[in-house]
């Protein structure tokens, strides 16, 4: 039986990827709750869906199998018990908004088919969705106080963040922001109960019940033996250390975890918003993450003599560290926006550094980042552009919108 998860690099030919087509959840965004739901503007649903379909088609045209989150989830909740358990967990983890209405809400959710229930949970449940005559508590009548029982999940199309495949195992992440915390419940259920995955022995390197956060945008598989992880606004040093220990204890081929400290700001929320790998020796970088002489805080974690104590070495230069861990003489760091401060800031804001590699030297990018795209082309990279007017409003690019499940091993 072929193992369903296999990712040994950032750039190996992409075989299977998980996407989520934006749905009505983005129409439950209103100006009042934008910040809390981690958006800067409200996407126009028909256009964001069209752009997303174009993205999916661009991948399929290159032979990539695209699997969708809602479909996998529907196939996962095969029994009434599991459906109920899932609804209870979603309600339980939304308890602040649900207040005393969990029974009412559960009855409401279970009245839908499994597929529709999953969509409802993704979209969010408004207080006004529930029949007036079923309301018994004062709180249930207070729709003007806070409109949702279940918040919408507009960030679901960034499938990169809630989980990441490392080798043949998975990190099911503890999302940092409350607005995204429930997203990794989907992957937890899929891994445990979907027939494509549940019949395999899939190691879980990190689990969402851990105290400290970790998000997939920070997890980069640089090579079969090295993982880079951003210490960012979303990923904590404690979580990185825990993941590293698990990998060192259970996955022999992983030799190094590189913790890359990046500024803790919204524009640079994950490592992949400022740094991605595009070929054996080529990377995108947002110049603003480095000091004047290219200095940064980087820590190389390796197995220690005692499994509980890692060997930690401090490094200051990203390019040199990459050359050392990848065994390369030279590497090319391609600056977002060609390094011009205005263009770099503008294109990075729209994810100019957030490329998705689908094979060595072949990337998917947003069309709007034309200066960065041109620079990639001039350096021998094949660039597949996708439309991005609405997709970019959520502050994530093609890498953020994709979770690779299978990649081919690299030839070298
Ligand atoms: N890997 C990524 O950088 N993902 C983008 C996530 C954007 C989303 N609006 C968020 O703030 O979490």
From TrEMBL:
Protein location: Cytoplasm
Gene: arcA
Active site: 400 (amidino-cysteine intermediate)
UniProt keyword Aminoacyl-tRNA synthetase present: no
The entry's keywords: Arginine metabolism, Cytoplasm, Hydrolase
GO CC annotation: cytoplasm
GO biological process: L-arginine deiminase pathway
SUPFAM superfamilies linked: Pentein (SSF55909)
Phylogenetic placement of the source organism: Bacteria, Bacillati, Bacillota, Bacilli, Bacillales
Catalytic reaction annotation: L-arginine + H2O = L-citrulline + NH4(+)
Enzyme class: hydrolase
Protein name: Arginine deiminase
Source superkingdom: Bacteria
Pathway field: Amino-acid degradation; L-arginine degradation via ADI pathway; carbamoyl phosphate from L-arginine: step 1/2
Keyword Cytoplasm: yes
Enzyme Commission designation: 3.5.3.6
Family affiliation: Belongs to the arginine deiminase family.
GO molecular function: arginine deiminase activity
Species annotation: Metabacillus lacus
Database matches in InterPro entries: Arg_deiminase
């Amino acid at each position: 039986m072929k193992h369903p998860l296999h990712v040994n690099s950032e750039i190996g030919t992409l075989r299977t990827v998980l996407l989520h087509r934006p749905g009505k959840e983005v129409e439950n965004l209103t100006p009042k709750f934008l910040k809390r739901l981690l958006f800067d503007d409200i996407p126009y649903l028909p256009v964001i869906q069209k752009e997303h379909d174009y993205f999916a088609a661009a991948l399929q045209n290159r032979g990539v199998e695209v699997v969708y989150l809602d479909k996998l989830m529907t196939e996962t909740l095969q029994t009434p018990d599991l459906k109920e358990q899932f609804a209870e967990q979603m309600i339980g983890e939304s308890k602040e908004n649900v207040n005393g209405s969990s029974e009412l809400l559960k009855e409401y959710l279970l009245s839908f088919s499994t597929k529709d229930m999953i969509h409802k949970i993704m979209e969010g449940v408004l207080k006004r969705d529930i029949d007036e005559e079923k309301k018994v508590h004062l709180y249930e009548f207070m729709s003007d106080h806070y409109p949702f029982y279940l918040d919408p999940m507009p960030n679901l199309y960034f499938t990169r963040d809630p989980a990441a495949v490392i080798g043949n195992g998975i990190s099911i992440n503890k999302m940092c922001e409350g607005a995204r915390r429930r997203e990794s419940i989907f992957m937890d259920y899929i891994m445990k109960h979907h027939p494509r995955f549940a019949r395999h022995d899939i190691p879980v390197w990190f689990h969402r019940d851990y105290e400290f956060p970790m998000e997939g945008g920070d997890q980069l598989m640089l090579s079969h033996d090295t993982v880079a992880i951003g210490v960012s606004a979303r990923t904590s040093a404690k979580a990185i250390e825990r993941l590293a220990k698990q990998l060192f204890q259970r996955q022999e081929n992983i030799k190094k975890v590189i913790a890359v400290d990046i500024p803790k700001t919204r524009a640079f929320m994950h490592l992949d918003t400022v740094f991605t790998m595009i070929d054996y020796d080529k990377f995108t970088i947002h110049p603003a993450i480095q000091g004047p002489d290219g200095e940064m805080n980087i820590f190389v974690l390796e197995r220690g003599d005692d499994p509980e104590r890692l060997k930690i070495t401090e490094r200051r230069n990203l390019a040199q560290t990459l050359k050392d861990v990848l065994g390369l003489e030279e590497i090319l760091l391609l600056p977002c926006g060609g390094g011009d401060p205005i263009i770099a800031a503008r294109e990075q804001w729209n994810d100019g550094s957030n490329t998705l590699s689908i094979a060595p030297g072949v990337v998917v990018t947003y069309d709007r980042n034309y200066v960065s795209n041109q620079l990639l082309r001039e350096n021998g990279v094949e660039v597949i552009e996708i439309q991005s007017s609405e997709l970019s409003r959520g502050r994530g690019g093609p890498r953020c919108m994709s979770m690779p499940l299978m990649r081919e091993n690299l030839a070298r």
